What we know:
The chain is an alpha+beta fold. Helices cover 43% and strands 23% of the residues. A hairpin with a 5-residue loop joins strand 1 (83-90) and strand 2.
Amino acid sequence: MAGHSKWANIQHRKGRQDAKRGQVFTRLIKEITVAAKMGGGDLNMNPRLRLAVDKGLAANMPKDNITRAIDRGTGNLEGVDYAECRYEGYGIGGAAVMVDCLTDNKVRTVAEVRHAFSKYGGNMGADGCVSFQFKHCGYLIFAPGTDEDALMEAALEAGADDVLTNEDGSIEVITPPYEYVGIKDALEAAGFKAEVGEVTMKPQGETEILGDDVARMQKLLDALENLDDVQAVYTTAVMDEEE
């Protein structure tokens, strides 16, 4: 693991995501709608919906918007029927890239994703070509200086799968995907607030990107993330922002 740059990379990526907040509500509404459609509208019985609603509230989404999205998902209101799809490929330097989408038109979406890959130096691959390089899990990262022993004890007691300390002093807590919210709440109750937290596809290895390739890889990721049907982009690429 490129621990020397882990914290800088996390903070940089968080900043880029915060700068795109105009897309956040649209993506969260889609996720809430699909989660409600698949698992019902009861947050206590549908962990995917609970997570999506919590993310909406954290982003200051109005509660009326959340309620309408749930009602569309459960069929109480008419709405667009979204389908889930995942596309996989390779970026600069062979870094694995995985793109999760929610769309009402798969033909349009696959064409747009393929175009972004090819235009910015990547290569879209077959289903399953890189997904084995990622793990579906909850992920919390705590700032350097956090009490490692106390956090580890609290995390493992709450049901976390693993606690990892990076070379730069930041600490990662890995959770089962649908127990993420409960573990996050337990850690906050114990006095530990994560700087970044999400349910994600965590890369199991890293591809270091250097020099001019950093800008090329970022252009590819930005092009994919800016597509309307894209919900999330995951990559094994680690880019030193000082390059």
